Amino acid sequence: MEKITLNIDKAFGAITKEQVNAFQPQVRKGIEMLHNGDGAGSDYLGWLHLPSSITDAELKELEDAAAALRAKCEIVVVIGIGGSYLGTKAVVEALNSSFDWLRRDRKNPILLYAGHQIGEDYLYELSEILKDKSFGIINISKSGTTTEPALAFRILKKQLEETVGKEEARQRIVAITDRARGALRTLATQEGYQTFVIPDNVGGRYSVLTPVGLLPIAVAGINIRDLVAGAVAMEKATDDNIPYAENIAAIYAATRNALYSNGKKIEILANFHPKLHYIGEWWKQLYGESEGKENKGIFPASVDFTTDLHSMGQWIQEGERIIFETVISIEKPDYQVFVPMEESNLDGLNFLAGKRVDEVNKMAELGTLLAHVDGGVPNIRITLPEVSAYFIGQLFYFFEKACGISGYALGVNPFNQPGVEAYKKNMFALLDKPGYEKESAAIRSRINAK
Prior knowledge:
By secondary structure, this protein is α/β, with parallel strands linked by helices. The chain has 18 helices and ten strands. It has helices at about 15-20, 25-35, 50-55, 55-70, 85-95, 120-130, 145-165, 165-170, 185-190, 210-220, 225-235, 250-260, 275-290, 315-320, 355-375, 390-410, 420-430, 435-450; strands at about 5, 75-80, 110-115, 135-140, 175, 195, 265-270, 300-305, 325-330, 380-385. A five-stranded mixed β-sheet has the order 1-10-9-7-8, with helices on both faces. It has a five-stranded parallel β-sheet with strand order 3-2-4-5-6, sandwiched between helices. Helix 5 (about 85-95) runs antiparallel to helix 13 and helix 13 packs parallel to helix 16. The longest helix has 22 residues, at about 390-410. The N and C termini lie far apart (about 65 Å). The mean pLDDT is about 95.
């Protein structure tokens, strides 16, 4: 079976093969720490062998729950923040039609998202659009008390109950939460919601192959068995018994650390396939939250080409040389569109007549690669044979594995996020949450002093 491939040849020039290979000991150590479970954050390694541990019965239960929601709902609102929604949105956007919400022959519910920000206008507009729609809710939260999703769920739960009654609402709400504790677990038990478990040893940004991602992805009509099968294939291809030179997760981790040590502080994930936009958004959280600690870490950014060549292209080509690119390249698109001949040829494009649009796109990709490398931007290339559930499953596991290895090679804990709590403490104090009286007084004193 085919698999995704990695090419680092265009990174050389900014670094050498010897510099990449010099990171082999740290990378090998990182792999050992992952597989032995003796590194920092080892309580959160449940994702490591997750793909191969998912059973047929577990997939069947998820598929049945998805079918039940599809039978009742035009819209399913996925409530969650960070890893609780980004993985889902990335997979659904990549694999469904770009205009799925406009298709009259659409067979599956539209997925909408809430709880991923605090926007009053957004929640109002979402509530308005749901007024004359049959909708359900997938509420994703390990604790049930994270502000953004808890706020959204409180509002939408009330709307759903007022629209269809409490008993029917119970049939349209699924909770994905902790196995035994937390506010959402308590509520789900009291109300009789169907529930799925977020494993204790899987952090949010690594959770797309748990029910967190698999249930809403199945609701959207995507084959979750193919997604998992792709991840299983990559789990095997990047196992600890795979030689370094054949392990693409290890080589990617070594290359990006070598570039970082040579002053390349920003990694830009680029694609030439617009349906991959949210892959970049998911990837940014995965790497930013995993590596950005102790005043270390590559800053993850993402762009969509060729669109962003007309906005960010100038900076990438001639800005400060602290960047490198990782490009996700797609060998074969799903469809064929040919450029027609135009008699007047006012746009001067008749030289393209008869060519596929994808050929034009591929030449734009190659031209950009050459221009950026000539401009001093090292390039790493990840190639997918096609955009399918199987290869997206491979891609997700590849990035997860490489992230764990890379974080350990960098010398940080890739599985915690202590800095995320800073804004929450200030927000709770400013909102006068009980228990934050001291912090509130201190913060207000600082504000008044300015």
